[in-house]
Amino acid sequence: MIDLGYSLSRRFPDPPQTDYRTADVHALRHDLFCGDVYLADTDSDRELSTAWGWVPVLDFAWALCDIIEQLDTDPRGSRSARPVHAELDFTESTDRMFFERRFGWVDIVADWMPVEEAPLTFNHAALRREARDFLHDLIADLADMHEGLADNPAVWALQARFPRA
Asked: Which domain of life is it from (predicted)?
């Protein structure tokens, strides 16, 4: 089973003058909502997590949804033996997460994992569903904390682009 989660940083708070209703895509993706994220396989009790405190958590959720769609470009879908690759880079560092889909499975590794450690492996359809649920749950949490965010047109577009599965 897949578990995606986040925590917001107290060390990197959002600027107090932020108008979340009109924040542009760049601010939403790179300047706001900093913290840490994790992706866990609860069956094997293994996880990939950040511990930096500055990861833009909304950008992570957004990028993860984008990547999962990129991995679904082969018209043969889950029958395809040809691997499809994608990567997620963290803007403020050189660290990256790497994704490889073959057949209906996605392997995920990160620069900061020990080389000998096996990748986290998830069913592609389940990962898509969990990533979209995580995105919507995150937006709901952030909208509860930040007045006006739920009325931001960029957030509406994001939710429409990646509806719950």
From this structure: Bacteria
Please list, in sequence order, all residues whose beta carbon lies within 8 angstroms of the beta carbon of residue 82, skipping any fewer than 6 positions away. 74, 76, 102
Phi, psi (rounded to 5 degrees) for 71: -70, -10
138's CB contacts (< 8 A; 6+ apart) are: 6, 57, 58, 61
DSSP category for residue 28? I
pLDDT band (50, 70, 90) for residue 48: very high
Predicted confidence at residue 106, as pLDDT, reads 97
Can you give the pTM of this predicted structure? 0.94
User: Token pair of 148, please?
Assistant: 């006006």
Burial 5-30 (b: 16+ CB within 10 A, else e): ebebeeebebeeebebeebeeebbbe
β partners of residue 4: 39
Q: Over range 147-157, report the average pLDDT.
A: 97
